[in-house]
Structure prediction request, 353 residues.
Amino acid sequence: MEDKKSNKMAGKQSILFANPPVIIAGSSVVGKKEGEGPLASFFDQIEEDPMFGGTSWEDAESRLMKRAAELSIEKSGFRQEDIRYLVGGDLLGQLIATSFGIADLEIPIFGVYGACSTMGESMALGAILVDGGYADKVLAVTSSHFAGAEKQFRFPLAYGNQRPLATTWTVTGSGAVVIGSGDMGEETAGKNNKNGVVKIKGVTVGKIVDYGVKDSLNMGACMAPAAYTTISQNLKDLNVLPDYYDRIITGDLGYVGKDILIDLLKQDGYDISSNHMDCGIEIFDRNTQDTHSGGSGCGCSAVTFTGYIMQKLTRKEWKRVLFVPTGALHSTVSFNEGNPVPGIAHGIMVEAC
Prediction:
């Protein structure tokens, strides 16, 4: 009898699904600044009010996430009671944006934390649940809010501190995807989503990587080593070269982290300079928007994926993408105690159907 488990494991850290799950629908809701950037036309909703009708920054992010979750379910053509599990998280303490935001949906939830890599972790776990037969439909969602992140991790906005040039701007946005079983296929899913579906071919689960960087304002330098480790391992696990992918897309390294990543991979003999893209670089205009090194936050890779990347795949302009959201695993406690900022990155292999 064929060993299905061995078929799904690839190399040291990767999984290749025998019957790849599909992303039936995705949604992207962003704030005003993101709506003024180069990707504005790809987002589903742009909200001018930074409070999203709420009374605090945390309340604003909860409302933001709920809106993205509901929109993704609506676009899939299913009802919220059709969703078996929700996998999601955010940057705030105890995942309060998620727990308060999606409580009314009454969907069984796995709350996860991977810092800015949370969209990758949520999609990976959602795909594993579906491929394993434990669920037929899973919602993966995450969010971040500029003001909430500044308040928790750095300085309240009223402080008016000067931001170093290596700093990235936390994206105000939430992205969500509905993941379904592969046997739904494009024909079935296409009835719900006119743009068709994208399949999740596999995942490379990231490791915690710590190069001893202690500058919590330089997210790119903190996360680039983790992105390097995951991308390099993915290529080794699959025994392929970088041009196997139309794009290798990191989450939010920004301009500083991008250069570090490319240099690190060259040490392993991999040159991704021609097909690498970073969501943090793409989401803002460096010349007209004062974001210094680019964008970051859970919402950065989430809305870029659900807004821009998915359209490229459904239109078959790209056939194969390695999506690598990146996260900096620090807290106000660890930073104040003088600890370095470790990083993590999860790789999601997505393909056009």
